[in-house]
Amino acid sequence: NFELGYRRFGQRHSAAAVLFHTLRRDQQVDLSSQQQAGDPNSFVYYIANAASGTASGLELEHRLRLTPAARLGLTLGLLRTRVAEYSFWTGVGQQDTLGDRAAAHAPSYTFSVAGDLGRRHGPGARLELTGMDGFHYSQSQDHRAAAHRLVHAQLGYRGRDWSVTLWGRNL
Hints:
mainly beta; eight-stranded antiparallel beta sheet
């Protein structure tokens, strides 16, 4: 792994940036095989070793205090992954070849935008928008999760040693 980061703190804001690159040898990948077509209970799951893989990315974060009671937060993640082509045995005398594509569960971007209202004690609220690109569910399947955005919200009250929060996710 190679990683380079920067972090800055100020009176009203903080910022961070991280660049990374990962090289993998004998990368483990989760595989599955449906033994009987049409029977969702007939999957066999196992782990195989791919020849190699890489992951490179950038993570950015910025937090800004607009007023003593209002804050804004932004994040962005960019990711590029690759699993090299690899072959494995699926049964007696049967060999399959996969890979040569992005890693499973690795969206090419993620982001969030959040606003907070409230002081250390008393009423408060938060509204957040998050999102990510689509991705493959598995190295051995072509099914993909669609890109999506979600909204989360919460209202609450904070005392000195306690808090009450009403929250909703995926609104």
